UniProtKB/TrEMBL annotation:
The keyword Cell membrane does not apply. This is Protein transport protein SFT2. Belongs to the SFT2 family. It is found in: Golgi apparatus membrane; Membrane.
């Protein structure tokens, strides 16, 4: 099979995103399933981390919470392609949120394992959540502007 035949057959199946690992192509439906499964799994893992927090296992909480966020972030790779997502993470519009997200993931784990300070770990997790939320909003047209207006309205500014 020639490369042009392969490209036209994948285009007919609805696989218009860039190739994933190893040149493997997924159909649009497969990408949506991958996104949905990873996003849900990441959310559930992050939610389950709170159980460990109630038992005082701060390090376990931090690991599960951060793992859940990473899986949720990976889920968007199914939509745009992993290579494209990695490049877009460091675009000017997403650079600050990406750096804050990556730094707070590491900081959350360091604080949880070395300081074992519950409040500081929770603060790092909250900042991690906000950075991931802000990063995610950058993919939705005008979502950041709307979020700014909503926050300004709530804060009375």
């Amino acid at each position: 099979m020639a490369i042009t035949d392969y490209m036209s057959s994948t285009a007919q199946q609805g696989s218009t995103m860039d190739p994933m690992c190893g040149g493997m192509e997924l159909t649009r439906t497969q990408r949506f399933y991958g996104f949905g499964i990873c996003f849900t799994l990441g959310f559930v893992i992050s939610l389950l981390s709170s159980i460990l927090l109630t038992f005082g296992a701060i390090a376990g909480f931090a690991v599960l919470y951060t793992t859940g966020n990473i899986i949720s972030l990976v889920s968007t790779g199914f939509l745009v392609g992993f290579k494209t997502q990695f490049k877009k993470m460091f675009d000017a519009t997403r650079l600050t949120a990406s750096i804050i997200f990556l730094v707070t993931m590491v900081t959350t784990l360091v604080v949880a394992f070395t300081l074992e300070n519950v409040l500081l770990t929770l603060l790092c997790c909250f900042i991690q959540f906000l950075a991931l939320f802000w990063y995610s909003l950058s993919y939705i047209p005008f979502a950041r502007d709307l979020a700014k207006k909503m926050c300004g309205g709530v804060l009375g500014a």
